[in-house]
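In keeping with the milestone schedule agreed at the kick-off meeting, the structural modelling team has produced records for the first pair of proteins. Each record is given below as a sequence line and a structure-token line. The laboratory manager (R.T.) confirmed that both were archived under the project's standard naming scheme.
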Amino acid sequence: MLLTNTVKFTNFELLEDPLMKKQIFISLLLIAGISPSCKKYIQQQQQNALESVITNGTWIVTRYVENGSDITPSFSGYVFKFNSDGTVTGTKASNVDNGTWSGNVSNKTITSDFPSAATPIDKLNAVWKITDSYVDSVAASTTINANTNILNLHKQ
């Protein structure tokens, strides 16, 4: 079958003009330069939003499943406060456990580390993959020694 359309799709003769080549080159550079910076800006805004949600208020563990066993009651009475400087405290009565946290929007993870904490707080030391989240709750999971742990946090 022969093509019957005789209208040129692209006028390649224009590309031979040095001014046209320069304009196309500059346009491509501008597009290439803007795209990464817009993406970075959006990621930074998402990171800021994540930090704002996490650091505004206190959180409690409403579910912790370790290798299929529900150990949520061991977190009863603990309240967690995440701070914008990357620190976190877990408080139960007069007992305070200090740690660090960081969130990664791109990977959808939160990392927590309580280096000197005892059980059950030491069970939070991990990189947690966020599986669901709202402004007042987070569901996450992690795998430790081939065992999957599930964590749900709710804002008080």
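The second protein of the pair:
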Amino acid sequence: MESVNKFKNLLYREGAKGLLGRIKNERNYDWIGIYVRNGDKLVLAIEIGAPANHRVINVGEGICGLAAKEKKTVVVDDVSKEKNYLACFPSTKSEIVVPILRGSDVLGEIDVDSDTLNAFGIADQKILSDAAAALSESWDKLDFRIRVT
């Protein structure tokens, strides 16, 4: 709970992009973003790193879509072995997607890509889950400007 409150305070001071930037820098992630759910689509609202190839993803498609459909964190240690993987970057080797939930509703998700195999462990899951909880609690105060194309 302590880190959820820390992330909520950071959200208040710096917004969602500031929160993601801090997490990316502290954890040395290659790319991090937030996809916002809009009906049966996930729309990229914020990203820190190179521009991702996939701006809109269908729920159920790829790792992001799977996390939204199943409403649970998905960790892929080696994306080359995943049949349902959508490549945003050719250099990505592993990925973690953490849904942002309010009750049983998926509001969005935090997506992190790494250029290293097996990059995500328990500590990453905890930090990103706490960040997702803080985002969920602050969701109605956040301004995500999304465009579905």
